[in-house]
Write a structure and sequence with these properties.
This protein is about 45% helix and about 20% strand. The chain is α/β, with parallel strands linked by helices. Strand 2, helix 5 and strand 3 form a beta-alpha-beta unit. It is globular and about 45 Å long. Bound molecules: S-adenosylmethionine (SAM).
Length: about 260
Amino acid sequence: MPVSEWEEETEAALAAAANEGDNSDTKRVYVRRIFSQIAPRYDLLNHLLSFNIDKAWRRRAIATLEWQRAPAGTYVDLCAGTLDVAAELSRQPGFRGHIVGADFAEPMLRAGLGKASRSLVGPVVADALELPLRADSVSGATVAFGIRNVADLDAALREVHRVLEPGARFVILEFTTPRSAIVRALYHLYFHQILPRVGAVVSGHATAYRYLPKSVANFPAEEQLAARMRSAGFADVRWQSLTFGIAAIHSGTKR
Ligand SMILES: C[S@@+](CC[C@H](N)C(=O)[O-])C[C@H]1O[C@@H](n2cnc3c(N)ncnc32)[C@H](O)[C@@H]1O
């Protein structure tokens, strides 16, 4: 394909993919392709661009999961990427369960192999909208920086609800748009100007790190995400803001 056509195609796909309302196949195909392409550099860029704050956020998300209710249970981490959340959960003192790390971009899962014992973490190539798990079969679920990428948010919430046992918790860690005008100005400068440039150079991918700020801007605000979790059947839905409101952890329980 000539370069100009490829650029046109990726620009169009980028615009469609960043739109939360777009549940067409365009988003699915684009998202799977960019993560497959950036997989070898994903961890490096993640920690570099977030100044390592992402690690503390993931630990906080796991603390919210209340896995101690069922330390030997089966857990699922959706959009598991390079398995950071699954590996962190598997390392918790007293945890002796099993974690299914589900992602539809196989290169991301491959890049994470070796972070955790295979007896505790099982990577599975699967779409978050069609989890290969029985209804009422898992003791808890997590998703970090992934739900924003799924083509149909409400369908994904319903799918997680389906696989959870009654009483089990679902924890979402996701970027949010800060409320404070000053923080928002700095955040925009960083997210829209600096991050896409550094991301493009280090990952070698022209649009992946422009997709990130666009997709965050189009993702529902905290109250709206909480309302959609309730509509999907979750009870006791709450959220906590992290680091000046640039990320949030939502949690809910299957009734
Ligand atoms: C930003 S990465 C997050 C990875 C990891 N959770 C973390 O904390 O670093 C988003 C991941 O979601 C995956 N993803 C996006 N949509 C998906 C879907 N519908 N089903 C499964 N995986 C999906 C991508 O392949 C990618 O690995």
